[in-house]
Request: fold
Amino acid sequence: MERIKEIAFLFFKLGLIAFGGPAAHIAMMEEEVVSKRKWMSREHFLDLVGATNLIPGPNSTEMAIHCGFHRAGWAGLITSGVCFIFPAALLTGLLAHLYVTYGAIPEITPFFYGIRPAVIAIILSAVWKLGKKAYKGIHLGVIGGAVVVLTLAGLNEIFAILLGGFVGMFCVAIKEKSFKPKAMLIFPLISSVATTAVNISITSSKIFFVFLKIGAVLFGSGYVLIAYLQGELVEKLGWITQQQLLDAVAMGQLTPGPVLTTATFIGYQLHGVQGAILATLGIFLPSFFFVAILNPIIPKMRQFKWTAYFLDAVNISAVGIMVAVVITLVQSFVADWRALIIMTLSIVVVFRWKKVNVLGVVAGGSVLGYLLQLL
Reply:
């Protein structure tokens, strides 16, 4: 019971402060779960990160579920996932209520201006620590660098990680002269689920199953969700307009935690509180299922040479993805001197004071951003 309380407190806290997207969320989890609490080794955490990138669903939510499962079994799996999702879903639901009732939400953007530049420092810290663990030779370093370039060039994250994994597996196998094609482990990917394009009346059960289907086939970062929702809810079913979708995505990004709480906002627009609850359950439920299947398999992969090679290369590829995210965030959110100051100070704090709390970094960035905008 003590472990369950610990898990609940940690992931509820992260759900409240986890701004900045999946890479930032995972960086915060690494700090809390590996560096501070020593729940698992950095190598195993890396294995989980790499493997999570290969299954459908929101990566950071699935990492939260993995950590809870590792710490306290099935009870931990449910507790960590629910506590990480709940704060964001609740905040998004409240914003949806204001949006539906008043047609707008309060102006709170100034308080979020400094958060993303500060979060960049947190991601950099995780990249440094995870990168040192993932780097096991020049061949893996080259693979990681190639993944950075390919990702920035527009290659899908899943393909980049899979490509890195297989290239790494072959390179090491050839180097050690252990090339045995029949020993290869193939990881099948779910690409789509067939549906019938019918514009039908909106009911609670239909909301649940539509979002359940999206959650079961959503590969890549949470931001890929936009394309899925556009095709399903706007173009196919006609449940919401393009503008309503953009507003929902904006709210999902504005709140902490997984961006998939966009589903909560849309569900509320469609069917009130009941719609919000069912849409949230539908889109996140597959993640619990996939993690429950995947988690016990990962340690076994380390026992076999070929799959261990593959996992090593996938891990360095996952670090490469995080590096690409940092570069993209810098380009997007460090557009003026104020953001540059926030990012620089946050980097100094994170790297100089090893025990700094991620909550302090996020809160400090928010306050500093608000104050600098007054100048």
